[in-house]
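Researcher: If only I could read backbone structure tokens as easily as an amino acid sequence. Walk me, if you will, through where the backbone shape changes along the chain. I have put the entry right below:
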Amino acid sequence: MATRILQRVGKGLHKTNTVLHSNGPVTITLRSLAGFKSLFVRKVDPRKDAHSNVLSKKEDLNLYKIQFHNVKPECLDAYNELCEAVLPSIHANPEYPSELVGTWNTWYGEQDQAVHLWRYRGGYPALTEVMNKLKQNKEFMEYRKERGKMLLSRPNIYELRSYQLRPGTMIEWGNYWARAIEIRQKNQEAVGGFFSQIGSLYTVHHLWAYKDLQSRDETRNAAWQQEGWDEVVYYTDNF
């Protein structure tokens, strides 16, 4: 994924207890991730657990979420003012187990884009708690309504995963994909699998649907408890 250079905006966000404190603009480089945990280096067996669990710190219960909003060019200033008026109050409210680590506009790269980095203390349950409470927050719901008028597009609720296969491995991949579907259907997941015939060939897509992010985490981890899942992941990695 391409990296993006981001410039921080909004004076009302300087009270976050993070290394991103600054009295002026801060420039950092972030990868385009929707959610992530901190990483560390150690020797691991990649076949016996979800990769997110293998790579993440077990003692770290925080969940991070990056939001990307593509804003109409003529609305960027108004969008920044709206965020500065509402988001710091959520950050400072002890009833929400969340912190606004930082908020930026894209400086180099994709223009007219806003980026927000949130930390949820307690993982997916904390994220779900915050989302449910915000639905009852009249100020936030009004903020969402006004914000929606300024955005070009909004993401959907499905997870689409895409992979580029080596030429000649499509049939072999299909055989392992059939085994994978049989295993994952034990959790009654909604799923779709596709491959390209026009455009970029040897490209496959998996479309997954989950009730919420906590359900996604539990379902993906549960797959590793099913016999044969580790073997399927190991061999499809070679494609």
Remarks:
- The two ends are 19 Å apart (CA to CA).
